[in-house]
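Forwarding the complex inputs:
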Amino acid sequence: MAINWFKYSAPSTFYGLAGKLTPWFAWPAGLLFAAGLYIGFFVAPTDAIQSEAYRIIFIHVPASILSMFLYLILAGYAALGLIFKTRLSSMMASALAPTGALFAFISLWTGALWGKPMWGAWWVWDARLTSELILLFLYLGFIALQASIEDPRRADKASALLAIVGSVNVPIIYYSVQWWNTLHQGATIKMTGTSMHVAMQQGMFMVLAACWLYAIAVALTRVRSIILEREANTQWVKELQEVKQ
Amino acid sequence: MSMSEFFHMNGYAFYVWGSYGVTLLVLLIEIAMVRHRRQLALRQLRLMNESGDE
Amino acid sequence: MSRLSVFGLLGLVIRRDLLLAMRRRADVLTTLIFFVMVVSLFPLGVGPEPDMLRKMAGGVLWVAALLASMLSLPRMFSADHIDGTLEQMMLAPQSLTIMVLGKIVAHWMLSGLPLVLIAPVLGLQFDMPADAIGVLMLALLLGTPVLSMIGAVGAALTLGLRGGGVLVSLLVLPLTIPVLIFGAGAVEAVSGGMDAASNLSLLGAFLLFALVFSPFVAAQALRISME
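Prediction (whole assembly, three chains):
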């Protein structure tokens, strides 16, 4: 089945596709959240050392993973928009940023609540938590820069450059913080033992998949709004059902 | 796990439910904000259309 | 106009920026005074206990250096942007990348270099031993140019925007964290009796990396901001 994918690189055609696809991501996301958390809470056993507190990982780890990957995807879309001058790519980057930032926040919040009973402090300068904090700053910088520039094209390109510079820096920042952490012998938040019970893995993967689907659904919805905002003066927008009513 | 055990989380209830509670809150707020943004955009477009027709 | 070599162009831009800055010496001095003031605030905040201050010294001086660099960043391009010189630079046949490099060097000479020179005085305030002060100066010498270079990209992206210095700081500070970690790490290593060579060589690597990429990236950022 030959689909002309390039047809969907125009905001006008993508708008409709995104609208149709969203429920296909949203509903499975909800189901997977429910299933994953069920396994995480009722099937996975109590941890020997961390007791019931370890159950926070079922949301902490997926949120961390998602925040990191969403940043890279954001930077990728932004780079595409910068290089090929495709408006939709830049819009996707803008659509992903708030979701990524919120997942970074969730990662930090759950990390703190996990750290307090385990290591005694609300904030532990663990390498991963510290890197996550810096990642949140990178997200906020991207959002702030976009918000500060009035001209949408300049905003797209400037924040794209920032995102690219940021993503090049992410590995450097990560390894610097790792090194800093070992030097100061800070705590390392880890699961006890290297082998995780099968149910724990299953639960976590399901929640991870749920987070991905959720993020896609939200990004698709948000990009539709961005398209409406940016393409307000075009004929096809004016002709839309939802606008004409 | 019984119901009361589930809520009590072996004493860690505050941390576990604090985590999941805030997470749920954040996700719900995000969904609400995304929908609100769409409503705003549509409202703006309808206004533009109306004033255009005059 | 005679053919300008790369170095000729560099020299021209640097000399011009330095000359213009000399006419507004206050700008350079305020950055320096800010640095000194911020450093002096820490003992006031945490207490004058010498052992603690000695341990904090490297970190405090580095954080102050980061903040002082951020403060002076908007100045890099704003004056030329306002009077139209920047536009001329972009239209000129000469390499914008080289001209940006010149501006970065001049900026560093006016904001980073003074910090390197005044660091010993502040180190003494924190009762730092001589070898630690030496390493601090070397680390600052390697690191402050990197701050100017990363900062140049930020300054170029935020050209003409409201929010000025604060917005640039928000964008640039996270990217300067590796410099902070290894710069302060160098001082800590030598204070603990160990060798600072690995920290310093990493700083050197950052310097080279930034030198190769940042003038070009900053020039692209300028083009984005100006079109």
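Chain A has one domain: 34-187+195-244.
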